[in-house]
Amino acid sequence: MDDVFTGSFTQQEPLPPAAIAAAVAVMQSGRLHRYNVVEGEAGETALLEQEFAAYVGRPYCLAVASGGYALGCALRALNVLAGEKVLTNAFTLAPVPGAISAIGAVPVFVESTENLTIDLDHLDRQITDTGARVLMLSHMRGHQPDMARLMAITDRHAVQVIEDCAHTMGGGWGGQPSGIHGVISCYSTQTYKHINSGEGGLLVCDDPDIAARSVLLSGSYMLFERHLAAPQVAEFAPHVGMTPNVSGRMDNLRAAVLRPQLATLDAQVERWAALHDTVEAILAGTPGLALIERDPQAVRVGSSFQFRLPELSGARVESFVQSCALRGVALKWFGAPQATGYTSRYDHWAYANSPVLHQTDKVLAGLIDMRLPLTFSTDDCALIARIIRSEILRIFANAA
Ligand SMILES: *Cc1c(COP(=O)(O)O)cnc(C)c1O
Prior knowledge:
The chain has twelve helices and 14 strands. It is of the alpha/beta class. Helix 3 (67-77) crosses helix 4, helix 3 crosses helix 7 and helix 5 (120-130) runs parallel beside helix 6 (147-156).
């Protein structure tokens, strides 16, 4: 009998007791709205912003309703206009081009490399060809390009970078936390990311003007002086009345469950590394399977695992995914012609009207993706990896 895995790829850990206790306290107070505080009380949302700003090492932080909202807020804060072209990765998740389109701007995709990072040569050409002044850089599935080279290119063209750190929260680059490069960096606290409030987002930046505009955009009314990681009140003056309210605040209940999770994020990242390393060690050297290489400067959060099967036809990849599913291993294939589940590709977003990107198509045609929730043990991961390896060996044996 073949081994079968019986765990769930979508089951997260329960929230820690401290998060549950903090949530109960907020509910007992009845003061769930971030600005509903009593004399002397900062409120959970303002405290979360202060703690996350310190975590990333940037002066300003705003907590919002979702990661997608943070991306849209960033575009608005940079005054991106309707009809303007905004560059982004061809390999990303739907909320990224969605945020660009939602403000009437036009997503223009940049090719992906085999290592699932933005192709920097294509980026350079796309900037010249489009005249775009903003890049929404998505660290999709935690894969980061050479950030020094990327910033050299964008600086040379005076392109502003919004960093989408939904999959790198808790990870890093060159010894620093992920999210220090973008003029604005955005994070998600949605259940499938690295800290879990169901829905939620965070945005960080260094520029007081951009920070003030972001706070006003999120729907602060005239209560911005209650923030702890926002600029001085005087910085708001030029923007009050000139900045529309696009309500998308975080509430105290979500912030309350996030603060204890932020405190243990680094320890969770270590646990994810153990899961990821276990899978990687077993899959290394499997014939026909290409692992994704990463720059030694990158600290990866191993909350998911990707590999490529560059030699197999679509039909064989599909049958490989099916045989793994029969053994309890849920894999996603990015080469599928139709969007399924969370899996999607640039050409599924027909509204963006993208030309065909041959290099990205080639990469995605053999790309497999799997979640590694922290409810898995390293033994679970070893079993999963052995199942994948044996199914690949079987496919190649049958082909011979
Ligand atoms: C989840 C995600 C987002 C946005 O997150 P939401 O909180 O779901 O809006 C943005 N980018 C990437 C790559 C994501 O995976």
